[in-house]
Every structure is written in structure tokens, then in C-alpha cells.
Amino acid sequence: MAEVAADHGWLQAGRIGRPHGLDGSFLVGDPNVMLLRAAKSVWVDEVQRAIVRIAGHDGRLILRIEGCADRSGAETLRGKLLLVPRDQAPELEEDEWWAEDLEGLSVGDGDRMVGKVSRLLALPSCEVLEVVRDNGGEPLLVPLVSDAVRSVDLARRLIDVDLRYLGED
Known about the structure:
The chain is mostly beta strands. It is about 10% helix and about 45% strand.
């Protein structure tokens, strides 16, 4: 996703998984459920395809897209990214961000820099920022909760965290 997200014009909605049934439907890997449920179409390999069917539940989303009419068609698309243009994404609430906006941001506690966000992980209890440390070592996992994250400044590309809360001080 890094190569696609670099221009920030696209949001990743998921990845085409294994076929589901005979009609061209497939499971969606790493689905962005809110984005897929709001979208009328997705882009696959730079081709816009209308969403024909969305089914299943948030933990096991099933999708069928235009131009994919059978199981073998779904199999040929397996592993491809599902993208949605940013300008077609639903509005986010205050203190909500798209993963693409957080990836690559610097993370620090005041003037003490820690590293950069490599990705956003969805854990059962909350979403977590995986931070690659500037000095190497194990990544720092920062839960997206107010006790751990003081602020997110997209303009300055900086996330201020409380290292003491995270057990790092």
C-alpha cells in the first residue's frame, strides 16, 4: 500500500481474497468496512468497478464487483488492492483518521523523538500504531487512546505520545 498511499489520493478499502461461491463474489481481506459500505465503486488495477453486491458481516465481508462474473474471474483478481478515491470517502468524526494519513508520521514525547508510524493495526480492544524506532529494536505499539496519544498534527506530520503511560520512560 505504501506506493499507492504515497500520493494520498487513494484510500485502501481492502484486498481481494479467495472466491466465495460461483457468481464472482470474494472475501475481502483487511476490509475497511466503513469505506466499503459507503462506496458505490472501487478501483482495481486502475480500473473503476461498480460494487454489485456487499454481504457478510464486518469480520467476514463478501463483495462482488462489476466485470467479475464467476469464480475463476474472482480468482484472477485475488490479492489485488481495492481502492477508493479520497474525495469519495465518508466524513470522519473528530479525532478519527485514515490509516494512510498516520503512516509515516513522526512520533515523539515532547522534544524526545521515538520513530515513525509504519502501520495501523486493528487489535480486538483498539487500534494501535506500530512505530518503528529511530534507534532500532522492537517496534513500539501505541494504542489510539487519549491516555497514550496526546495529539495528532497532520499538518506538522507529528504524533505526540505519553511515553510514561506506555511504560517507556
